[in-house]
Structure formats: C-alpha cells, structure tokens
Amino acid sequence: MTFDAPNPGSDFGGVDGFVAVINPSAALGKGLAFATYYTSAGNQIVYALDVDAKGKVYVTGVATANVFPAGSAQHTSGLGNADAFFDVLSFAPPGS
Description:
Elements: E1 17-22, E2 32-38, E3 44-51, E4 56-63, E5 68-70, E6 73-75, E7 83-90
Antiparallel strand pairs: 1-2, 3-4, 4-7, 5-6
C-alpha cells in the first residue's frame, strides 16, 4: 500500500475503490508492484484502468461524496448525486 495514498484515512463508509498493479513474472508472494485506494464519505468506485509502458496508471470511476481525495488537495464541490473522476498515478515498473 502506498504511504502517500490520495486519502490516508480509511473506513469512511460506503464503497471504496482500489488499484493494484501485479507483476506476473515475480516470485510467488512478491508480485505486488503498486497499490493504492480511494476512500472518503459516500462511494468511490473504480470502473476502469490502464497501465502504459512507462508506469502511468490511468484510472476512471465515479464518486458520490462532495469531498474527493486529490493528493494534498481535495475536490469539495460535487454538483450532483455522483461525479466522474479521472486520475493518473505513476509507479516505477519492475526492472526499470
């Protein structure tokens, strides 16, 4: 788990989304390359993600809370029952 996750708190209720990148060629039990999560009041649901060759992880989903974690800042102006989100995360791919 990343120590600088977008929101370091947990157990706010609702559904929390998470992202994990697995290295399939790693030794048994050593395959987790990167992991983080989205949590806040309401729901944060990850619907799709993609990883490029440079280690960027593109994440899309929906959040139902008026507060959405955004690194050291927070989005606090939800305009409806749910807002879509797009996030870009970076990690160092194995062997880089």
